[in-house]
Amino acid sequence: MFSEIxxxxxxxxxxxxxxxxxxxxxxxxxxxxxxxxxxGTEHIQSMTAMRENKMCITRCDNATVAEGSQPGVTxxxxxxxxxxxxxxxxxxxxxxxxxxxxxxxxxxxxxxxxVFIESNIAKERALRELIDNIADFDGSVSMTELINLQGRxxxxxxxxxxxxxxxxxxxWHRGETPECVRRMLLRxxxxxxxxxxxxxxxxxxxxxxxxxxxxxxxxxxDVTKNATVAxxxxxxxxxAKGMTVDVAIGFPAHNLxxxxxxxxxxxxxxxxxxxxxxxxxxxxxxxxxxxxxxxxPHERSEEFSDRILSELLKRSDYEEMRDTFLGWCETPFASGxxxxxxxxxxxxxxxxxxxxxxxxxxxxxxxxxAFELWAAFTLKKISTKNRI
Length: 388
What we know:
alpha+beta
């Protein structure tokens, strides 16, 4: 790791102090330098600084200076109480000595930061692997042992997880970079899901999976309610920052098999909601029928929806008729409420429903016919042609 960032250390420190800088490894070989031709050469002063664990000053008139050496100061670089290299600033000692401690601290700080970054990357990678294995869980004993072992190695307890959620950042309205927005989103998520038993796993810059733990023996209703409250609180924070986030909440779970089903349901609900152009908080429980329809073979579902809707599909007002019917399905026995929600006169609502009956042969007031119409319209909306 040190050799990977040595050049970056040399370039950064050199840019800050305006002097040539060299970084040597534990064998006193220069592995980072603002003067590239010195890379790979031996630097005796670095060995001295590391051996004595103190600043080594090299002057022009120093009789012990080896041929090819340059005046300056050299300090050891420590990492976790171990000396792993040295950093040199080239120039008149009286002028560059004052930069010595800064250069040393900067080098050690960059090392610690790199370790932190690599540690986080490794943990995120391990978390993603755990989440993927949970989603693929098949109920076998061997896979149960593997997943539980992965959880223990990451310091998480899957037995406390009660519901899975999938969050996707749809857009943001400010000028921040994707990485900056990602950090803001994760901060808001961690703030609204502070329980130490929660598993929060980022996927790329726009998606986050959460396995939410429960406090005590909460009922399924309480689990969903607590998840919803936390999600809405988080969305309030992200909205205030100009971020639009969609969240799919899976089914409550009681064991590893259940949390696996909850995770798959959350992913399915998010995927189908995107096709239906739904956003905000999406409950898998509210999309059970759509998820079942999505399991149908594409050819069969296309044939079914095209057969039912053939005459409607020819009309320029197809989407208007579709949205009217789907809106009516939400509260079919409250025509006044539906008409108001759709900004229609009640007579216009009735006219459109009768028109649908005339063109499809399916009666919206007959339960079986209404279900077939709803399935046909929905299949058409979630078909592969409409995927995003």
